[in-house]
Write a structure and sequence with these properties.
Distance between the termini: 25 Å
Radius of gyration: 18 Å
Order of helices and strands: HHEEHEHEHEEEEEHHHH
Number of strands: 9
Helix content: 10-25%
Number of helices: 9
Shape: globular
Structural class: alpha/beta
């Protein structure tokens, strides 16, 4: 069931504040993500949503819910797909990489019990076996899952670029979040319009980068009648980071996943000189414009992983250095101040020149499943 243009919330595109902040119009003159396919492992993607018509490929279905990969059982996957590759037609969301294509891989994400992810591992393996270059995983939970870990390793071995949300319990227990915490995955946290870390954004050594996640419109439910205001969470941040990777990869189609990851993370500015990640922003905010418009970023050795212990970026280390800007508690105020202190008093991460490290180590453990979206 598609959404009629008249049913879409008024001027939803004006609420996509990050498009101007990231200089999307200028980047689109260089790259729109053409030639890149992004597998969206999620609740399904409704291909008849106005902004996604012609953007969605035939997919795979591993969900217990009735339907197929083009039946979105709660609207989440369709939102992620629009944030990545939406055309904006019919008043819908504009994707940051509108030239990319979406491969929907539907899985059951809301039914995790006793440390099991249901069919997420099968969905990731299917995405790995497809011709999609990027796998977007805007989901997760607070427990280690061996089957999903093996699927992640399999996908990385197949040359896929993997991104996942860092979770939305940053103001709560804030435990490590999987699959973002697996070392082959770029874990994505959230920042707001002021460039401050979102109060809900999960933080710790599973955060590789941050992207816009606060005040991002989303489909309210599976009926796709209206967009809702509020926070897109680290789910939206992950989709925007995946779209950023698509823009870079489209410009450099002879690169592989290791090189795209190295440039995506290496053009965040901030803490890159010392390779010293922050527990709140990882290596910094994604800025694909620095590659597309300014020519920055070194792709490096295509055979050397960007992550893991032998790579340039290692978020799986057992110990990290703490900066002087150590927060007192994980609430909105302390996280915002940490982001400000980290950028030398400038809280706008899109333009700041540096982000100092403020890193701690969080313990592991198995906990109840939490969906990687706020609320």
């Amino acid at each position: 069931m598609g959404a009629a243009p008249a049913a879409v919330a008024e001027d939803v595109q004006s609420k996509q504040w990050y498009l101007d902040a990231m200089q999307a119009e200028q980047m689109w003159k260089v790259s729109k993500g053409e030639g890149i396919k992004v597998a969206v492992v999620d609740s399904g993607v409704n291909a008849s949503a106005p902004s996604l018509r012609g953007q969605v490929l035939a997919g795979k279905d591993f969900a217990a819910e009735a339907g197929d990969a083009h039946d979105d059982y709660n609207g989440h996957g369709t939102t992620m797909a629009e944030l990545i590759a939406g055309t904006g037609k019919g008043g819908g969301l504009k994707g940051l990489a509108p030239g990319a294509k979406i491969l929907p891989v539907r899985t059951s994400l809301a039914n995790g019990k006793e440390g099991k992810y249901d069919t997420a591992d099968k969905a990731v393996r299917a995405a790995a076996d497809s011709d999609a270059q990027i796998i977007n995983m805007s989901f997760g939970g607070e427990f280690f899952d061996a089957a999903l870990k093996e699927a992640i390793e399999y996908a990385a071995g197949k040359g896929k670029l993997l991104l996942a949300g860092s979770g939305n319990d940053g103001a709560g227990r804030n435990r490590p979040f999987y699959p973002a915490a697996y070392p082959q995955v770029i874990g994505v946290g959230s920042v707001d319009q002021q460039g401050e870390v979102s109060k809900f954004s999960g933080h710790g050594n599973h955060v590789s980068v941050v992207a816009p996640g606060s005040d991002i419109p989303r489909w309210c439910d599976k009926n796709l009648k209206n967009y809702c205001d509020g926070d897109g969470g680290t789910s939206a941040a992950t989709a925007i980071a995946s779209a950023s990777a698509a823009l870079i990869w489209s410009k450099h189609q002879d690169w592989n996943a290791n090189q795209v990851a190295r440039v995506l993370v290496g053009t965040t500015d901030g803490v890159m000189e010392n390779r010293n990640p922050s527990k709140y922003v990882g290596y910094g905010a994604v800025r694909p414009r620095l590659n597309l418009l300014d020519g920055k970023g070194e792709p490096g050795n295509p055979k050397q992983p960007a992550f893991l212990s032998n790579g340039d970026f290692d978020t799986s280390k057992a110990a990290y250095a703490e900066s002087a800007a150590k927060p007192g508690k994980a609430d909105a105020g302390s996280q915002g101040e940490t982001a400000k202190a980290a950028s030398g008093g400038n809280s706008t991460l899109w333009t700041s020149l540096g982000i100092a490290a403020a890193v701690i180590v969080l313990g592991g453990g198995a906990f109840a499943f939490l969906r990687a979206r706020r609320g």
